[in-house]
Amino acid sequence: LVRADDPKPAGEIKLESYSLYFKGLVNEETAELLTGFGVAICDQDDNLLFQMKEQVHDSRVSLLEVELMALKRGLTEAVGLGIDRILIYCDHYRIFELVMEKSASEQENIALLMDDVQRIRQRLTSSFPVLVTRNQIKFVYELAMETIVSEISIHIPDQNKTCNICSDDNFEPEQMFSVALCSHEFCVECMKRHIEVRLLAGGVPRCPHYQCETKLTLGSCVNLLTSKLKAMWERIIDEESIHVADRVYCPNPRCSALMSVTKLSNSNSTKEDVTMRSCFKCGEPFCITCKVPWHSNLSCNDYKRLGPNPTADDIKMKALANKKMWRQCENCNHIIELSEGCIHIICRCGYEFCYICGAKWIRGRVCTHSPHTPPTSKFIAFDVSIEHEEELEKSIGDQHRGT
Asked: What is the pTM of this model?
């Protein structure tokens, strides 16, 4: 290795020791922060034993940190080569102060790096710092500069690109899609298919690179989406913004708008209908408890007794029964009207109950609603099946059975 200047100061005590040269650089003139360092170790006769250059992929690193990384790496390599005496040549006065322990850093990252440097120095018999000019370590400065130049060249677009999904390597740069946060690249057609599959599965699309967890953003992918997929993605975003327990969907099949329980206004409910809400989008009323279209004149319990899929006629029938104050047998679900007699009802299925409260009638126990008269009630029992209220009332006729 040939250098124009001798880095060793005149009058220095000559020791049988090796020389460590190091330099870190940070280039802030580009759009991205580019960093790297160079290290060289020479023997007693100034023959080169070791040299290396390395990029630092950390946009938050400072110049002082890179310099200390280079020093730490150089000392580590010296120990690995079996060297026990070494002179540390540096052109950074702050590094010189820290190694000489004339001062300490209050920055945690700098302090940690210095702890590593001093710990490695303890493994050497002698490690003495020497302050020099940059010109005296010009060759390691050039090594560090090469790392930055190399890193800049990496960002120069190639003529042809390779898709990491289909592995085709003949794409022009404009035919590629790059994920902003992780920089993984894929052809536009593969990304379109990937996004569609993920959206149809109900999830937010992620970068398709193996084990990459970066989420794609709607804004960056909007040019790849059809109007249908865009609406689907927006819906997923809305769903993720509402806690699962608070999600309510409009029961109108032509709407299905997503709403939040906590944001549904109470202003569209009344004292009588405290569970009624109106869809923000289509305006149709629905029951906030049952999550079904509004069951007018029916309580939630009555509605649930109609089964999981009640027809419109079922609902009309139950509403009319409530209006006429008819009682439904809990055993067979037949509707009964008490025309005369006591409130002790015996349904045609044999089930006995109180007409007032609906409780099961137990012989020997007097219901609190029961007058002390023998059970001579007359009632009407019929199936729950109608088309119109008028037809129901007309169909009642003379179907009676005494008890």
From this structure: 0.37
**What is the Cα–Cα distance from 403 to 32, expressed in whole angstroms?**
93
Model confidence pLDDT, tens digit, residues 194-224: 999 888 888 888 899 888 888 888 888 888 8
Nearby residues of 131 by Cβ (< 8 Å), 6 or more positions away: 90, 91, 93, 96
Confidence of residue 168 (pLDDT cuts 50, 70, 90): confident
Dist. CA 401–CA 403, nearest whole Å: 7
Give Cα separations from 44 to 38, 85, 87 (angstroms). Answer: 20, 10, 10
Residue 389: the pLDDT is 46
**Would you mind telling me the total number of residues written for the chain in this entry?**
403
The H-or-E segment that residue 140 falls in is helix 138-154
312 forms bridges with which residues in the sheet? none
Collapsing DSSP to helix, strand or coil, 135 comes out as: helix
**Residue pLDDT, tens place only, 42-66:** 988 888 888 988 888 777 788 899 9
Q: What count of Cα atoms within 13 Å lies in the side-chain half-sphere of residue 339?
A: 12
Q: Give the residue from 372, 373, 367 showing the smallest Cα distance to 352.
A: 367
Instruction: Say whether 188 sits in a helix, a strand or coil.
Output: helix
**CA-CA-CA-CA torsion sign (149, 154, 157, 158):** positive
Contact (Cβ atoms closer than 8 angstroms) between residue 20 and residue 41: yes
DSSP one-letter code for 198 = H
| H-only helix segments in 272-330 | 300-305, 312-324
pLDDT of 155 strictly over 60: no
Distances (CA, A) of 78 to 84, 110, 124: 8, 22, 9
Cα separation, 260 vs 32, in Å, equals 43
**Amino acid sitting at position 373:** T
Judge contact between 224 and 192, C-beta under 8 A: yes
- CB of 178 closer than 8 Å to CB of 188: no
For residues 313 and 318, give the distance between their C-alpha atoms in angstroms, rounded to a whole number: 9
Amino acid letter for position 113 = L
The residues annotated with a catalytic role in the active site are 342
Which tokens go with 153?
A: 């060249």
Q: Taking a C-beta distance cutoff of 8 angstroms, is the pair 137, 7 a contact?
A: yes
Helix axes 227-240, 188-200, angle to 10 degrees: 50
Question: Taking 90 as the threshold, does the pLDDT of residue 22 lie above it?
Answer: yes
Query: Tokens standing for 334?
Result: 């037949």
Pairing between β-strand 85-90 and β-strand 126-131 as defined by DSSP bridges: parallel
